[in-house]
Amino acid sequence: MNTAIPTTAPTPAATASAPTDDRIARAQDALGALKTEIERRLFGQSNLVLQAIIGLLTRGNILIEGQPGLGKTLLVKVMAEAIDLEFSRIQFTPDLMPADITGSQTLVHDEHGRARLDFRAGPIFANLVLADEVNRATPKTQSALLEAMQEHAVTVGGVRRLLPEPFLVAATQNPIEMEGTYPLPEAQLDRFLLKLEVVFPSFEDLREIGLRTTGRAEDTTARAMDRQTMIDLQNLVRDIVVAPHVAEFAASLTMATHPESANSTADVKRFVRYGASPRAMQALILAGRAYALLCGRAWVAEDDIRAIAHPVLRHRMIPSFDAKLEGITNNRLVDGLIATVPNVRAG
Question: What torsion do the CA atoms of 167, 169, 170, 171 make, to the nearest 10 degrees?
Fold first, then answer.
């Protein structure tokens, strides 16, 4: 994926039902300002910031993987500040309980001494929830996130309570330290629309980070847009046009992740046990729409699907034992799919 927001102008390929050029231009300006503000605090991670914004635009949960100290927590916090979202951080530990996330019913007494049960909301009741080191909690506690991630609601004491909108779970995990962790089950991994990987900064970026963050001046985040503007942009993403041949290309890419598919690569047939679910198809289309909007277009191109294929597919293919033995990564498998799945030309 490109590290900067492209400025491709809308073309006549957009249909009459597509958003107007004026709406697209205003959206691109607002999103450009948001990206600039986040990058001002998270220096040298332009690609990561762009992918995180796609997660926001699609109302999709994101899993952020990277070594300690690379800015995973800072990214989520700055995103919330730049959009004036209610932010909540949950530090996942082995002794964390589901009620510590969702909240619980508590026995209280009124002024007349009568007892009643009151619901005390947990930290999940926020717009942007950071599940820090999510793989350090037990599977029982991890499962407390599933309803919230899928339905934007939690059920406590038999009562279903809606979460505030916009709502997004951003979970982090460390790929190096595996001792004392509980791997995320496939069902939960599949609920993350994107898996983002934080790369180590370059020499120049590392030098700049040291200079910018160790002085007397304390960095603050300016508000780049309000909450309602983000909700409007999330709705606009759903209006971006997807032509039938682009949907067919996304479907072909998803089908090719399955080793039994006729279009899968030799690497997929050998190194993948199970391919991506239909949620991957939904994620490719949604993320493609968001990427097209960031490019200033009212329609999705096949290249948009290619651009977001890695964060959409890398966590949805279950590798075989041979893949682990030979060090074959899911990123390499996605590279092969992008290179071999043919274009589907519009008729």
Answer: 170
10: pLDDT strictly greater than 60: no
Question: Which ranges constitute the DSSP H helices of the chain?
Answer: 21-41, 46-57, 72-83, 98-102, 139-142, 146-151, 186-189, 203-213, 227-237, 244-255, 266-271, 278-294, 302-307, 309-313, 321-326, 330-340
Is 140 inside a domain boundary? yes
Q: State the residue range of the domain holding 252.
A: 240-347
Same domain, 323 and 258: yes
Angle (CA) 261 324 319, round 5°? 30
Examine residue 104 and state whether it is found in any structural domain, yes or no.
Answer: yes
Q: What is the pLDDT of residues 53-77, one digit of tens each?
A: 999 999 999 999 988 888 899 999 9
Q: How many structural domains are present in the chain? A: 2
Same domain, 184 and 253: no
Residue-wise pLDDT tens digits, 126-169: 999 999 999 898 888 888 888 899 899 998 888 899 999 999 99
Q: What are 54's two structure tokens? A: 């796609």
Claim to verify: residue 152 and residue 258 sit in the same structural domain:
no
- Pair of tokens at residue 197: 């990987």
